[in-house]
Design goal:
- The longest helix is centred in the first third of the chain and has 52 residues, at 2-53.
- The chain has helices at residues 2-53, 56-69, 74-110, 116-141, 145-171, 175-207, 217-249, 258-273, 278-296, 300-327, 329-337, 340-349, 353-368, 372-397, 399-425, 431-448, 458-477, 483-496.
- The chain is mainly α and 497 residues long.
- The protein has 18 helices and no strands.
- Helix content is 86%, strand content 0%.
- It starts with a helix and ends with a helix.
Length: 497
């Protein structure tokens, strides 16, 4: 699992780096307001993708991992067949609805009729995207990471190539055409990715079992339907959250351009904030099938071991990444986007990085231990709270109200998910180690803030490196990172060689 995570991490980091560079390119062509419009289009399409996929990716991954964990290879093909049929029905229904209501959604929700062609093009590709999720879940559960990584590179390259060509030859600086160009690029890439996954899956799935079985709908529905309802509610509330931010923010007296402010935070700051998380997202991706296999065979000791190691790794990495982002925030925002407010907001949100990264790993482990319903309940609850807070606070406090809502709802979600994990896995977090590690991070960031500000790449590398070195030294002095941890890493490296 460790080396699979390393492979996924390298691929995800490279893909995210390319994606971030492409985001910078888009922001330079369309401006903050154009990025804001694109984010609103993505919020609507994201809602319909969630409704169309209806929890099937997690279901495919979970059931495939169970079949492989119990050595029932003949059931893998039946799982894929049932998940594919379920996905086609749900995605086709949602695609028809999105096509029909695209003009109404563009005018009433997004506020710009130019978004309608993008929504309709996305509606045509919705079944393809959802089927891609089924096969991605299968490849992850089967530990076919190399094939998955290769397809991800193919998809990203196709999306960027098509989008760049359309932006240069057709879209220009028009925001509506730019959104359509991005959508066309992603749709073409999704078709290519599905074809590649289907070709790679064909031989593996056919050899998984020669005896045909009926699709296990009795196991698919109890997993997929609750996830579909909960994810649909959460995604719906999330879409409402994204759509009301510019509208409610415009009611605040100090707001000059609400759509531009929204674009800076969601289109510039958050992608940079979550870029280092590619490492932990790779681990999270593999924890779901691994914990599912362990739970299927009753290996409770390995479940507790993985939970302890994953929590510790996520906390230390989150503190290190948050410290580096905090130290070089202003120079990073100026270098990437040439937008002064991007660096200011990046430093403001950097202290949340450890919690956000930990929450991603905790949520993955809960799903791997069969706690999908509990995770979905927590996500729906906190998203509802977020919408309520934003509706009430944005007109009165502006972006300060958004910051408060973000902090409270994410903290509540993390606390509930961590409590559920401790119950399901039987392990408890090492609170004393977490406190010492966090105090070291606060000290390192406070000392780094005393350095004189610098511009350009030096303003990122110098304070970031200083903060990281200081953090490692204090962790060593307070024995947050012990010789046992170093020996564990050495053992992994020696074992691989």
């Amino acid at each position: 699992m460790f080396y699979g995570a390393i492979m996924l991490t390298g691929a995800n980091l490279l893909l995210r780096l390319v994606g971030m560079g492409f985001q910078v390119y888009l922001s330079s062509r369309t401006g903050a307001a154009g990025i804001g419009l694109l984010q609103l289009v993505l919020a609507v399409t994201g809602l319909f993708f969630t409704l169309g996929s209806a929890g099937i990716r997690t279901c495919s991954m979970y059931l495939t991992a169970e079949e492989l964990g119990r050595k029932r290879l003949q059931g893998v093909r039946a799982v894929l067949t049932g998940c594919s049929r379920y996905s086609l029905v749900c995605s086709a229904a949602m695609g028809i609805l999105l096509w029909h209501f695209a003009p109404l959604l563009s005018v009433r929700w997004i506020g710009d009729l130019a978004a309608a062609p993008s929504l309709r093009l996305y509606a045509l590709s919705l079944p393809v995207r959802c089927m891609e999720g089924v096969l991605t879940g299968f490849f992850t559960a089967a530990n076919r990471i190399r094939a998955l990584v290769a397809v991800q590179f193919l998809e990203q390259g196709c999306a960027i190539a098509v989008t760049s060509l359309l932006l240069a030859r057709w879209a220009g600086t028009d925001a509506g055409r730019s959104c359509l160009a991005v959508t066309a690029g992603s749709c073409g890439a999704a078709v290519l990715s599905l074809l590649a996954l289907a070709m790679l899956c064909r031989g593996k799935a056919s050899s998984a079992g020669k005896v045909r079985q009926r699709p296990p709908y009795g196991r698919i529905f109890p997993i997929a339907l609750p996830l579909a309802v909960a994810d649909g509610l959460r995604s719906g509330l999330g879409a409402v959250e994204h759509l009301i931010i510019p509208k409610r923010l415009s009611l605040f007296a100090g707001t000059v351009n609400a759509l531009a402010d929204y674009g800076v935070i969601h289109g510039m700051v958050f992608p940079v904030l979550m870029f280092p998380a590619a490492i932990l997202f790779s681990l999270s991706e593999l924890l779901v099938p691994e914990l599912s296999r362990c739970a299927a065979v009753g290996s409770r000791e390995r479940v507790r071991y993985l939970a302890r190691r994953s929590l510790r790794l996520a906390l230390l990495f989150g503190l290190a990444a948050g410290g580096v982002l905090f130290a070089g925030a202003e120079a990073l925002g100026e270098l990437l986007f040439h937008e002064p407010m991007a660096g200011t907001y990046l430093r403001l949100y950097a202290p949340f990085v450890p919690m956000l990264y930990l929450d991603a790993v905790v949520d993955a482990m809960c799903k791997g231990l069969g706690q999908q319903k509990a995770s979905a309940r927590y996500n729906v609850l906190t998203t509802f709270l977020d919408v309520a807070f934003l509706w009430l606070l944005l007109p009165r406090f502006g972006l300060a109200g958004y910051y408060f809502s973000f902090a409270v709802t994410h903290l509540v979600n993390f606390a509930l998910s961590l409590r559920r994990l401790t119950i399901a896995s039987g392990t408890r977090p090492a609170w004393s180690d977490a406190l010492r590690a966090s105090l070291c991070a606060v000290f390192a960031c406070a000392v780094t803030a005393l350095l004189p500000p610098r511009a350009g790449l030096t303003g990122i590398l110098l304070p970031g490196s200083f903060c990281l070195v200081l953090l490692c030294l204090t962790w060593g002095l307070l024995r947050v990172v012990s010789g046992e941890d170093l020996m564990w890493l050495k053992k992994l490296a020696v074992g691989r060689r």
